[in-house]
Amino acid sequence: MTSNAHNPLNTEPNLARPDDFYEALIEMHRGFDDAQSQAANARLILLLANHIGDHDTLLAAMALARGDEAPAVAA
What pLDDT does residue 34 have? Predict the structure, then answer.
């Protein structure tokens, strides 16, 4: 699924170095207990959400993360 008028969220592979990103994400959690990992994930989500900034894109991402279909965006 790609970005379009009804879903502003790009879900196609878009990471330049996905393996390096995954490795860095795992490293970010090294030495953390569960609570520290959850807090780090929450901070990362908020930082990335702020960077994205678009409300409809964020709603679509949240719906997909829940397992729902992305909501249609009003034109």
Answer: 98
Report DSSP letters for 1-70, one per residue.
----SS-----S---SSHHHHHHHHHHHTTT--HHHHHHHHHHHHHHHHHHH--HHHHHHHHHHHHTSPP
> Could you tell me the pTM of the whole model?
0.78
- The token pair that represents 48 in the structure block: 């990335």
Q: How far apart are CA 24 and CA 2, in angstroms?
A: 26
Q: What are phi and psi of 38, to 5 degrees?
A: -65, -40
Task: Tell me the residue length of the chain.
Answer: 75
